[in-house]
Write a structure and sequence with these properties.
Length: 412
């Protein structure tokens, strides 16, 4: 085929009508647009747009305590009124430690033994000096007795003119001199006895004993270490053997804001809940209000007695204290259920219900109301502590058109 024929085949005939195949894409596009419009209209008609969330206020359902209403809540710590870090009176080397953490010790029980080799040798020296002083006293008493006999003989001879006055004076002065020397030796004997007593006490101080009955909560020294009643300024000398706590002296100390201290008084009943056991309410009472305030924290310290202490109460534990009314607590059967605000319960005839909020949606739930509990209502069925319910304004006649599953927004 020649080149001219090829070029003629490639030429476009602009005057001819468009072929049927060129109009087919346009028809498909129109069909897709129509179908899409119909589908969008059906989708919007079948699935309506979700309504905006309803703003509500909520309240937390609280468990009912076993005691009466509290007038004030505070936090504090368990402290021991009788606690001691036992140390020695003098610097010494620890030979033996006879206690471990958690051990119960009695008053006067041996806790540790210090090296007493030098002290024991000094005691033996003092006792030897004491024996020498006693021998000197015995010797002086013999000499004094001899001098007294000589004086008696000389006096008899002098009366018969057989001894001179000089002999009589000499024997008299000899008795007086020996009497004075005996008095001095007796005083030296007393000094030796006192010195021996000091050495015995120093030897006894090498044995470290418990000052009172309690439980060992910390062991600070080991055999071979040096111990001193005062810090030596280095890291190789201990200042104590162990720390003993009298568990019977445990009590609670709380700092109460001075704006609410007028709600607390000595003898006021209270309950103590350990942070480790929040469900256990321990009866307690106020011992005293410390008559001074902390100007930096604006608080007043209050001491609280634990009336029923058990082994779960340990020093330095965190606690929550509820100060109660000065009224007898209600019977245990009345202390069941939970409490909610009055405006959270809607009553229609014989039925009472609340709106429970869970994951930004509400659900209507029927409850059983036992009666008022102060400014709130006591619910004995239908709710659990910790749940959140809708609390309507006091001037509202009911819920603002809520329904199960409605989307809500909590505003408080």
């Amino acid at each position: 085929m020649d080149k001219k024929a090829l070029l003629s085949e490639l030429a476009i005939d602009r005057d001819s009508d468009a072929s049927p195949s060129s109009a087919r894409p346009l028809k498909w596009l129109l069909l897709i647009a129509v179908v899409g419009g119909v589908g969008f209209a059906a989708f919007t008609w079948v699935l309506p747009i979700e309504a905006s969330p309803v703003e509500v206020r909520t309240a937390v359902v609280e468990e009912l305590a076993a005691a009466g209403d509290s007038v004030l809540d505070a936090t504090g710590y368990v402290v021991a009124r009788r606690q001691a870090t036992v140390s020695s009176k003098t610097t010494g080397k620890v030979v033996e430690v006879l206690v471990e953490e958690g051990m119960h010790v009695e008053e006067g029980q041996l806790l540790a033994q210090l090296d007493d080799s030098i002290t024991r040798a000094q005691l033996e020296l003092s006792e030897s000096q004491l024996r020498a002083s006693r021998a000197s006293v015995d010797e002086m008493m013999v000499q004094l007795r001899q001098a007294q006999l000589d004086l008696e003989r000389t006096s008899g001879l002098a009366e018969r003119k057989l001894a001179s006055q000089a002999d009589l004076d000499r024997d008299t002065l000899a008795v007086e001199g020996l009497t004075a020397r005996l008095a001095r030796v007796e005083q030296e004997l007393n000094v030796a006895e006192r010195h021996a007593d000091v050495q015995r006490q120093m030897l006894a101080d090498m044995q470290i004993r418990a000052p009172f009955a309690g439980v060992v909560v910390a062991k600070a020294a080991q055999p071979g270490e040096m111990i001193s009643p005062v810090s030596a300024g280095g890291g190789f000398t201990r200042t104590g053997i162990c720390t003993i706590v009298d568990m019977d002296s445990l009590e609670v100390e709380v700092d109460v804001n001075e704006a609410y201290i007028n709600r607390v008084f000595p003898g006021q009943p209270a309950t103590v809940a350990l942070n480790a056991y929040p469900d256990v309410q321990i009866p307690a009472s106020v011992i005293a209000i410390i008559p001074t305030a902390d100007r930096n924290k604006a608080t007043v310290r209050v001491r609280i007695r634990i009336l029923d202490r058990d082994d779960r109460v340990l020093p330095d534990m965190g606690v929550k204290v509820r100060f109660l009314d000065d009224e007898p607590a209600p019977p245990p059967v009345a202390a069941t259920g939970v409490v909610v605000p009055r405006d959270a319960v809607t009553e229609t005839g014989d039925e009472a219900y609340v709106w429970v909020v869970r994951e930004d949606r509400v659900a209507r739930r029927r409850v059983v109301v036992a009666g008022p509990h102060g400014a709130r209502l006591r619910v004995v069925a239908g709710l659990a502590g910790g749940e959140r319910v809708v609390s309507f304004p006091s001037d509202a006649s009911g819920d603002p058109g809520l329904a199960d599953g409605d989307l809500v927004q909590v505003v408080n």
